[in-house]
Amino acid sequence: MKVGPVGFCIAAILAFIFSPQAVYGIRFVIDREECFSHNVQYEGDTVHASFVVIKADSSWYSSHDGVDLV
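Structure tokens predicted for GOLD domain-containing protein:
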């Protein structure tokens, strides 16, 4: 049985809706600094971070450029 693009989209949406894990996001605004830090409260916790730096002429919600960590 082949699954078309519509079936794939429906399956992906259902997977996100019924995912047992919560999603958390943190936004850091860095003003000309080269590093940042975040405290991890419990020993053994794992932090996964990725970032993209986007420079835009106008921002939607803030007047500062920033880095979104997901």
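Residues 24-70 form one domain.
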